[in-house]
Amino acid sequence: MTLLHDVRYAIRLLRREPGYALVAVLTMALGIGAATTLFSVTYGVLMKPLPWPDPDRVVRLTEMRKGQQGRIRGTITNGAYLAWRERASTAEAIGAYSIVPGAMTLSRGSGEPVRVQVGRATASLFEALGVRPIRGRVFAEADTPSGFRRGTPPDPAVIVLSYSLWQEWFGGRDDAVGSVVRADEMPVAIAGVMPREFTFPDRDTRAWLPMTIGSVMTDAGYQRLMIFGALARLKPGVSPQQAAAEGTVRARSAPDPGFTAVAMFGSTAPPEMAVTSAADAMTADVRPALQILLAAVALLLATATANVAGLQLARATVRRREIAVRVAIGAGRARIVRQLVVESGVLAAAGAAAGMALVVALHRALPALLPSDFPRVADIAIDPHVLAFALAIVAAASVVCGLLPAAQLARVDVAGALADDNAASAAGAWRSHTARWRAGVMAAQIAVACVLLVGAALLARSFVALMRADRGYDPDHVLTARVDLPRRYDGPARAAFADRVLERIRSSPRVVHAAAGNALPFVSGGGNVGFKMPSPSNPSVMLQVQTLTRIVSPEYFQSLRLRVTAGRLLSDADTLTARPVIVVNRSFARRYLGPSPVGTRVPLAFGEGRPDCDVVGVVDDMRQGDVTDPPAPEAFASYHQMPARLLNAPLVFVVRTDDDPTLHAVALRTAVREQDPAAAVDSMVTLDERVMTSLAKPRLYAALLTGFAIAALAIAGVGLFGVLSYAVAQRSREIGVRTALGAQRGDVIALVLRQAMPVAVAGVAAGLLGSFVLTAYLAAFLYGVAAHDPATFVAAGASVIVVAGIACVVPARRAAAVDPVVVLKG
Q1: Do 54 and 411 contact (CB within 8 A), yes or no?
Q2: What percent of the chain has pLDDT over 90?
Q3: What is the DSSP secondary-structure string of 681-714?
Q4: Closest CA to 437 of 411, 402, 408, 413
Q5: pLDDT of 151 higher than 50
Q6: What pLDDT band is residue 236 in, cutting at 50, 70 and 90?
Q7: Helix 287-318 and helix 696-730, axial crossing angle in degrees, nearest 10
Q8: CA-only gyration radius of the chain, Å
Q9: To 5 degrees, how large is the angle CA 819–CA 822–CA 824?
Q10: What's the CA gap between 434 and 416, in Å, rounded?
């Protein structure tokens, strides 16, 4: 009953001061809501066990040479995979999957076809994951296609659906299993349906087809190096180090791919296997950023708690008489402390209620807010662990906000408190013990806001630098699209199809250039090639060449506005009857061709019986993906000369316009459908959008830290305003006396500012010092700006000083407006 009485009394007090209550509740709601939301993301992504049986035994396999991973990180080659899988003693199962799922058109007898992302996996992958379907079955070895035509995988026989696709397409009916559908015109039987929570390798994959892993040496006697992802389920008691040792031995027993390995690893060194936890491998890219953001939101929560504690301290001075009366009539120290903690608990509970409403709203928006490749989004939920975390921080905030004022009021001088009139002495602003506590709390808040603002400014400047980075091409006014053709198209037919579509789209008066090919920035395509060639400067030295190959139409370079540094570009005269030619990028020329690259003959044969290629031109390096990665050597060939390389490869179209490129989306789609209604147009977006999508994670991190910094700065400003307002109210008699004795308005304003600004300056100094230490952890996330950039530090510190000054203006003006007659008469 006594506790209930304390709660009721706390609520009555808050009703008397609705402004204070609103500020305190909203401050706590922001801190608790932000901290709980980010903890839920961190727990779901980094700490929550994967939704597989014994997830700690599931590991990712990575092949390396001389400590270097392949061109696609986290992959393994077919030779190492097959050699290990056939003689594995440390793993119960080893399975493979495609790193980049492809899009396919699924259709059935009735209903509209659906365009979905489809992954490929071996029958053993589901065994390695330990996941069973809820309907039907997964792949069996008998379902894996046999044979392998050069350039194209064999047709699969079955397909496994995701739970969401099963519900959407079949309404959850059991008769879906066993029915036959068509995947890009291939008949496949539905073998089974996976559980609702199963998403692999990413959340957009909605179906799976069987995957064939061919041997390194084919029946025809040529080498075929395949790359893909692989997982294993280790046997109980086996460590990743033991598995890696066995994998290395097995990989080295596989047929040597020789120079083919140069295309992937840049080296013919013996293979090594790395084995890492699947959970760690999935989250490696986001783990450091989440840890930094979690620390930032902890600082924000500390700022919110300190703000409320500071306001409580300010109110504590005003309540000295009330507490003295309570002590005089017999209330003990424990009773006073409990009352104050209960009051803080009521504030924290109200803030928690509002904060959890914010958490729920943010959780609903998370799938749209997080980048599409953000891992384990399905595992982010408001579960008991998240609720326990929220309860813990509410309890901690209640104790902190209650104990600080309790420590000041529990030792109140009863006689002195009852005798005075609550007016602050004229001796000074921060000389009392309570006032110094308030000053310390405010300085700490300002320091935290300064740290967050410096970090946010660095990330924001880095993001701007990434957007403005020279990628070697101009993404402005460019429309891109990927087109999947039916499997009946061979190489020449694909080239002819592309030429007809380009002729149609170029007829538009606002189209400047249009091209097609098998590669585009941020779109997987082309191939990795490794070969030997004599050094142009010293023919007796053989160079190990590793390059990416791009098969494009001649206008590809003009469509992307690639800069020509030497020679010429591809032209319509480069046909099958002409001598094969290539254009290389600056990195290829610098690394392999020397100072005079044009005219060099390169043993790059794109077809059996074809002669070597002549280098006719050099273009500047084009960043195909992350601008922080060093540019790789590239070679461009015309699909009019080497159409066989387009076999089974999706076409990408590039259309440069002099107006809004999205206005030409319908025309491009129509041009494709006019040539073949079965052709599937996919991923039709501007190149600017592709650039921004590639920057989704840096943009997210910068936006979050900026939001935390703005919130912390606002909280510090509001706290400084509130504490200073209380201080001015306490000193109203002193200010009235000063005014009566002739103090001018400016003198009074200066008096108040001298009370507050030293606290702000001390907080900024401490914040800048802390930033100098802490921003070193941001160095890995920065591009184009140093972690200790002086301009950023100065600008952030000045911004905090300005906000603090603004927060002081209103109380200062209020103090200057004090009527000495009214104050002294009161």
Answers
A1: no
A2: 39
A3: EEEEEEHHHHHHHHTHHHHHHHHHHHHHHHHHHH
A4: 408
A5: no
A6: very high
A7: 10
A8: 34
A9: 100
A10: 16
